[in-house]
Design goal:
homodimer, alpha/beta, Rossmann fold, 2 domains, 10 helices, DNA-binding
Chain lengths: 289, 289
DNA sequence: AGCTCTTATGAATCATTGA
DNA sequence: GTCAATGATTCATAAGAGC
């Protein structure tokens, strides 16, 4: 039995990073404030200033990430003056100068993207999930994110209600349960670098940063249980919530007090046994297994 | 009745461009040779040299494109030394210095991409379709690419039995018939900037550059009939073939004699009435309407 | 429970207005 | 002039209501 720690810090990540030793985290995954949006909350970083604002933070991330760890950056460039702004691609080039490897670019296809129609533009239905690494060799658990193959298995599994699945998988050795596992064995395939996820519209109070499925996918892919996950722009704490559910230790940093408070509500109370709070830090500790 | 011209040039586009007057084309769409691939055929442009190789060509494209025209560049960066190479994003930055506006980035999601799995990487299932313009205002015919709307209208119409639809639409002026037509009107929606297209596996002989549906979509979106389309890296002539079928004038440039010859076979013989060939040029002329 | 149908809304973008 | 704030536009989801 091991403890799963979930800590949340209030403050600008640039300052909070100083609290962490080097090579602490297995995965850093975050969706930083987009340029010019949330202007009231994050001081309104202008697109032209975005790279300079981000670089000192990515430099610290380089320090606290384990050499075989991964940094996933969910980001998308704004339209400025009828043009896609270049701060994202400039950031990639600058981060490489810092020592990051730009290993891969995943596409998050937003199935239910924001509506709208404009004279010379369609709806923006995708975001970048940039993968950065320190070494060419890094940890990756591909089997953890295998997906049902084709339509057949998908439809078949969708037909099973939750209770059916629980009941039948619990009957070990039963013909039906065996069939289910056969489907799973045979009909699983490795995914691609395109993720099809709908944004979550459930949270009414707060802007849904990314759907739970997004950090979930990357956490499964790049960490194993009891590894350490960091989200330096934690927002309403989705990453930490998912990490906790997956039995990963996690730390979130958020500079907005409202979000910081909200996070306490998002983390299910039944999942932590110990609650500590200092001026800058809240610890939720839960037990696993 | 107007002629639709389809011309094909043999040679390096950098030289062939000199034959064209300025502001000739309404759309330039191409899938240039990827860095380091097709090395035997295109002189093997190395990734590090790709930008320098491309820029003089994009400069000429800037000259021959109409001010309200569009340039669509289908491209994807190679993996070099376990990293995504940066030549594509560097190219974007350099082309902006030439005067291009980077208006948008469409994602081509390759639904049936080549299966495969690597230790540190999943299958690459997408490519960039970069949209460049000269002016902020450009021609765009959004209605030409509208797609059937999601579930709402579909489910609605499914409820109606065939006999119901026939009976009630025949009763002109009935309230019910009116409603049905309203549904039909609202059945179409504007697409997003993510294109879901399967790669074509038909052509075994030649590397499948892009599926017909890709140039088709952009030609419909950015040109009308009798406009001029250019593909400076025409390969086996897919763009010209599609343009001809859509009653657009088109010019293709290809430096490989094999491809040049292949194109004659790809363009259906029944569609051209006149055949002229000079040292560098082949004209297929067809009549429309 | 299993459907059908209604309704709210989300990291959007552009044109217009006002300071 | 430039910059910031507001309204209009619009569709894939999920939650909720009703049967």
């Amino acid at each position: 039995m091991k403890e799963i720690k979930t800590a949340f810090y209030l403050g600008d990540c640039l300052e909070v990073f100083a609290n962490f030793e080097a090579d602490k985290f297995d995965l850093i995954i975050t969706s930083p404030p987009y340029a010019d949006s949330r202007s009231k909350t994050y001081g309104g970083i202008k697109p032209d200033e975005y790279v300079d604002w981000f670089l000192p933070r990515s430099k610290e991330m380089l320090r606290v990430l384990k050499p075989n760890g991964t940094f996933i950056l969910n980001i998308k460039e704004k339209v400025v003056a009828s043009e896609r702004h270049t701060y994202v691609i400039e950031l990639i080039l600058e981060m490489r100068k810092q020592g990051w490897l730009w290993t891969e670019e995943f596409i998050w296809h937003k199935k239910n993207c924001y509506p709208g129609k404009w004279p010379n533009r369609f709806r923006d239905a995708w975001e970048r999930c940039l993968q950065f690494n320190i070494n060419k060799k890094f940890k990756m658990y591909q089997e953890a994110v295998m997906i049902p193959m084709g339509n057949w298995a998908e439809k078949r599994l969708k037909k099973l209600s939750e209770t059916d699945k629980i009941r039948d998988t619990s009957r070990v050795g039963s013909g039906f349960g065996k069939n289910v596992s056969n489907w799973l064995d045979r009909k699983m395939a490795y995914p691609t670098n395109v993720l099809h996820l709908a944004t979550e519209t459930g949270n009414r109070k707060h802007s849904a940063v990314f759907p739970k499925a997004l950090p979930e996918w990357f956490i499964k892919l790049f960490t194993k249980e009891h590894d350490w996950v960091l989200d330096p722009f934690a927002g309403s704490g989705t990453t930490c919530q998912v990490a906790q559910n997956l039995a990963r230790n996690s730390i979130g940093i958020e500079m907005l007090p409202e979000n910081y408070e909200l996070t306490k509500k998002n983390i299910k109370p039944t999942q932590y046994l110990l609650f500590e709070e200092t001026q800058h830090e809240t610890h939720y500790v839960t037990r696993n297994n």
